[in-house]
Amino acid sequence: MTAALFNTALWASLVALSYALVGAYVLLTGGGVLLRNQILGVVFGGVVWGLFFAQSGYARGIQYFALLAYGVQILLLYSWYQFLHRLLRGPYERSMPELVRWLVRLFWIVVISASAGVIWLTSVGTAEWLDTVCNIIAAAVALLCLALAAQFVSDAPVEGRTATRALALAAVLVSGSQAVVAIVAAAGAGAPRWLSGLAALCLAAAGLLMLFALRQRPQWSLDIFVSPEARSYAPRFLATGSILLVTLFLLPVFSSLEPLIARQAALALVLGMGTPLVVLLFSERLNARLKVFVSKHFVPFRYDYREEWLRLIDTLVSKGAGLPLPERVIKALAEIVGSPAGILWTRVDENRQLTALAGWNVPSLPEVRIAIDDPLVLFMLERQWIIDTAELSRRPELYSGLKRPSWLDAFPDGLLIVPLISNATLTGLIMLHQPGSSFRLSFEEIDLLRTSGRQVAAFLAQYEADQKLAEGRQFEAFNRLTAFVMHDLKNLIAQQSLMLRNAAKHKGNPAFIDDVMTTIDNSVLRMNKLLQQLQSGETTGPRQRVRAAVAVADAVERCRGREPVPQFDDTESDLHVWIDRERFTAVLVHLIRNAQEATTRDGSVSVAISAADDGVAITIEDDGCGMEPEFIRTRLFRPFDTTKGSKGMGIGAYQARTLVMDAGGSLRVDSEPGVRTRFIIWLPLYEARAVTSAA
Question: 15, 297, 371, 557: which sits with the fewest CB atoms below 10 Å from its CB?
Fold first, then answer.
């Protein structure tokens, strides 16, 4: 008995000594700064507790000893509560949520009221259950401090982790040991002396840990405080409160047992429940996994995913802000986490590098290029992870030991890197700037950014495809214009070549000379028209009122230099159409020459014009080789498809049908292989067209 009492007194003396050393260090070195008052409060509570219980062997006979011991215990716990509370309140005393502050105030009102009731009942008489009430109150205060210590570990800044962990361990030793002693004492009518001595040893160790933390950070400034966005108090309060609730529920059972058995059962209960809870509260990995599991299955989500999805799509498709799509893509992802700026890198064709394509709220685009086989890029593609660059720097083991790439040093404000993956291919990545000093990436942001990144990648892929399609259409229009010009030039060259071949034979013929001059004049007019078309980018010329018989006769005249010579039957000479005269004549020339080429020298090619269905019908017929129905249906009017090899462009028939359809007419082909071919062009009359337009 004497040895046990001596050990208890010795341990309590060590508690007073350790806290006295902390106080001396703070007063002599000026450490603590903003936390000096709270640290000195902890020192005072520890010294008073140590001195009181060091003399408890002599003071047990004093009246109201139990009440004094309760007061000293509450004083010690309250000093630690004030210290932790000040840390969690932050530098501007606004970090702790308002609801938590009001609940803590209500808790202390209950504690003070219950303590006042205990003092009054003790002064008027002694009741057996008063000690139990005091121990339950002390256990509740100790568990509150334990919850605040767990909250501090969770939300403390990354810098100075050694000092903050030492401080948190000190708080855990104090609050945990006092909670165990109080619960066992409430269940078994007092705690065994060995347990009280062990609790005193924990208090002494806590004082030394606090001294170590102060030496690590002599001037605790604003950096030690937690972030102003800490909002996860409920799990800590519920976890520690569950121990107290179970104890209260089982108190009637403990009271029915022998004191020794009740103490053992209470100790087993506290250790059996408290150990896994403490491990869960202070293990970042287990706590994170549990948080994700509970949040996904039992707690309403932080984000309204329907609203987030609608906002994302609205940002991507809306052009009201005047931003191009790449910048809207960055803005859409940045708004999810509240980022103020971002940069988009994309692949250019099959290039092995990612190039900065756009920036949102950045002064200029960086020249940094990222290799497609960079380890960070390959890691994002393989895992489809969102990279937190700050976490990558301090905890590379979470990223399979991935080293921070050197190119990230050029972006000190860059925090999150979101991969853009489409069809298992990395099409680009977006770097988002630091949303705020208190930002913490949770599983909801990760899931939302990952899903949004895939949607954004699909939008960008469609955007690039549209850009390439627009460029292709521009090239197609240019190629089509070039083909039309080349086709017309080929006809002009053929006409000039025919004229040169006949010049040596007919150069003494005045009629031939007149025809040559007329042909040259016509060629010059047509080439000037081609130049105008090239300058304007259009293949059509001005429409005018054209006498159909004159245009057909002109085309037949141009084709008389070949055999078989076309025959023209003009039965309707006063029919007019509304069309581009030059192109119309060129189309007729092309169809007549095709008929001549498909017919032997002794064959026949005839051209006729007649009135039909309020329009003009122009028929070009030959008795040549003819065409298969399949060829007419699939190849005849397809541009750049020719049966003449390198001699043809394959656009004559296509050009003819396009011109006729633009003029409101139609082009029909009747052909029998080895028998004949007939092209029938129908165009509306100019007068009918005028009446229809007026109506």
Answer: 297
Break the chain down into helix, strand, coil percent, rounded to 5: 65, 10, 25
Residues 108, 589: Cα–Cα separation, whole Å: 105
Tell me which of 56-60, 630-634, 658-662 is least confident.
56-60
What's phi and psi for 160, nearest 5 deg?
65, 40
Classify residue 157 as exposed, middle or buried by CB count within 10 Å of its CB (0-12, 13-18, 19+).
middle
Selection from 281, 418, 399, 273 nearest residue 342 by Cα: 418
Per-residue pLDDT band for 349 (boundaries 50, 70, 90) equals: low
Give CA–CA dist 107/141, Å, rounded: 9
Query: Residue 63 CA to chain centroid, in angstroms?
Result: 69
Question: What are the backbone dihedrals phi and psi of residue 621, each rounded to the nearest 5 degrees, phi first?
Answer: -130, 145
Compute the residue count for the chain. Answer: 695
Task: Give tens-digit pLDDT for 480-507.
Answer: 666 666 666 766 777 677 777 777 777 7
Over its C-alpha atoms, the chain yields an Rg (Å, rounded) of 47
Token pair belonging to 201: 């040893």
CA–CA dist 203, 205 (Å, integer)? 5
Dihedral sign for Cα 363, 364, 369, 372, please.
positive
CA distance 22 to 42: 9
Query: Over the chain, what is the mean pLDDT?
Result: 76
- Tell me the percentage of the chain whose pLDDT exceeds 90: 5
Cis peptide before 564 (omega within 30 of 0): yes
User: In a 3-state reduction of DSSP, which class is residue 490?
Assistant: helix
More confident position, 693 or 187: 187
Q: Which residues have a Cβ under 8 Å from the Cβ of 108 and sit 6 or more positions away?
A: none
pLDDT exceeds 80 at position 212: yes
What one-character DSSP code corresponds to residue 93? T
User: DSSP letters of 290-322?
Assistant: HHHHHHHHTS--SS-HHHHHHHHHHHHH--TT-
Q: First CA to last CA across the chain, in angstroms?
A: 123
Distance of CA 320 to the CA centre of its chain: 21
The confidence score (pLDDT) of residue 604 equals: 92
DSSP character string of 501-567: HHHHHHTT-HHHHHHHHHHHHHHHHHHHHHHHHHHHT-S----EEEEHHHHHHHHHHHTTTSSSPPE
How many beta carbons lie within 10 A of that of residue 317, not counting itself? 10
Which tens digit of pLDDT belongs to each residue from 619-642?
999 998 888 888 888 778 776 666
**180-202 b/e (C-beta count within 10 Å ≥ 16 → b):** bbbbbbbbbbbbbeebbbbbbbb
pLDDT band with cut points at 50, 70 and 90 for residue 91 = low
pLDDT, tens digit, for every residue of 108-140? 888 888 888 777 777 666 556 677 778 788 888
Q: Which of 459, 400, 26, 70 is nearest to 207 (CA)?
A: 26
Judged against a pLDDT cut of 50, whether residue 80 lies above it is answered with: yes
The answer to whether 582 and 610 are in contact (CB under 8 A) is no
Beta-sheet pairing, 544-547 with 576-579 = antiparallel
Q: What is the pLDDT of residues 424-464, one digit of tens each?
A: 788 889 999 887 655 667 767 777 888 888 888 887 878 77
Residue labelled with tokens 């256990």: 139
